[in-house]
Amino acid sequence: MSVIEIISGILLLVSCVVIIFTIMLQESKQANGLNALDGGASETYVSRYGAKTKEKFYAKLTKILAVIFFVVSLIVDLVIKFF
Q1: How far is it, in rounded angstroms, from Cα 7 to Cα 21?
Q2: Are 73 and 12 in contact (CB under 8 A)?
Q3: Which of 18, 30, 46, 67 is deepest in the core (most CB within 10 A)?
Q4: Which residues cross the membrane (predicted)?
Q5: In sequence order, which residues have a C-beta less than 8 Å from that of residue 12 and are 6 or more positions away?
């Protein structure tokens, strides 16, 4: 194994773990049963608008990490085939 293969393997592993944790941090998009009972009255300004910025951040981070994972996977494949 070459040094490039080892480094790229480590990058793949780290990006996989970070993608998993980022996805786990995101809130579910499913409707909450309690919201149906009280009509959503328990929502506050912070819970409605503050969470959206966090959700957008996690969604953007997930996309960036997925692209990094894809690019590193392609690089590993090309390195293995041509070297």
Answers
A1: 21
A2: yes
A3: 18
A4: 6-25, 61-80
A5: 69, 72, 73, 76
Count other Cβ atoms within 10 Å, centred on residue 43: 13
Residue with structure tokens 């996805």?
Answer: 23
Q: How far apart are CA 11 and CA 79, in angstroms?
A: 14
With beta carbons less than 8 A apart as the criterion, state whether 55 and 26 touch. Answer: yes
- 18-35 per-position pLDDT tens digit: 999 999 988 776 655 555
Torsions phi, psi for 62 (to 5 deg): -65, -40
H/E stretch holding 57: helix 51-82
